[in-house]
Amino acid sequence: MELAKERAENPLLYILGRIWRDYSILVVFVVILAICGIAAPRFLRPENLLNILRNTSIIGAIALGMTFVIIAGGIDLSSGPVLATAGYVLIVLQGMVTPDKQPLMPLWIPVLACVAVATAFGFLNGIIITKFKLPPFIVTLAVGIIARSVVMYMGRGATIMGNKIPQFTGIGNGSIFFIPIPFIIVIAMAIVLHIILTRSKFGTYVFAVGGNENAARYSGIKVNRIKIATYMLVGLCTGVAAMIEMSRMAAVAATTSGAQYEFEAITAVIVGGTALTGGRGRLIGTVVGFIILGIVNNMMIMLNISPYLSGAVKGAVILFAVLMQRRER
């Protein structure tokens, strides 16, 4: 009734309101591009923009899976340490060579092992949360601490070097028609996951669980299975992110690889318009969200702003995004 009344009384404002609610993130994105282009003209150089896309792809991959978890009403604070642990497995297996310095196994085996380890951590998160009815915040925080401790123990707190073969380093550093391969991987993931989220029963159930868990359960939806699947999905995405990051330098730092990545991914999801309360969100918003974060980081470097202020800037971005979501409701 209220929507119909608003449409009848002021159709122009109604249309503009709908456009803002549905496409506000794109409007903000264009405005940010314009401001950055004016503040630092070299920002709009193609090589700089492509560099932003390459650098944001790691966080972007995690953020895609995180979108499913948050829409379903959960959160995952273990992604960064899990990335380091999965990356360690990848680097160790990939670094094994024969006496004549040839790889001991095909590259796809270490990559598959990396993704499997990350997905297993996601499964562990989901099982503990659903079977023991524990808060996702506490469970994933604890699992993240365990994962970081494990990789630091196995790597003795050092940086582990892998085998710098072109077919491996080319994943993170290569390009196809000038487009960075990591960004191509993430966009391909986004397309597939968008179809799953919007065109499958699983996607519908994810929204239902996040919107009203009790109603979803009474509707016959296997709520626990859906939650476990979302945590496994963010684990899988984290495994892909680990592959991208490790291939950049063919090395993993036990103490710093993946540090704070979970918060970066959550920020990208929130900026993209996904509600922290669950039940609402879009992957296109997440894609724009992690690119915006990349732009912010890039501009701070270009304007010679202290890196110690990056946390303050990102915190302000989160607050602004949450306030905008509250106004939309």
Biggest sheet record: 2 strands, antiparallel
CATH architecture of the largest domain: Orthogonal Bundle
Q: Could you give the count of β-strands? A: 4
CATH topology of the largest domain: ABC transporter involved in vitamin B12 uptake, BtuC
Distance between the termini: 17 Å
* CATH domain class of the largest domain: Mainly Alpha
What is the radius of gyration computed over CA atoms, rounded to a whole number of angstroms? Answer: 21 Å
Strand content: under 5%
Give the helix tally: 14
Shape: globular
What is the residue-averaged pLDDT? Answer: 90
What does this structure look like?
The chain has 329 residues and is mainly α. It has two domains: 1-39, no CATH class; 45-328, ABC transporter involved in vitamin B12 uptake, BtuC (Orthogonal Bundle), CATH 1.10.3470. 74% of the residues lie in helices and 3% in strands. It is built from 14 helices and four strands. It has a two-stranded antiparallel sheet. The protein has a two-stranded antiparallel sheet with strand order 2-3. Helix 8 crosses helix 9 and helix 9 (201-211) packs across helix 11 (223-249). 40% of the residues are buried.
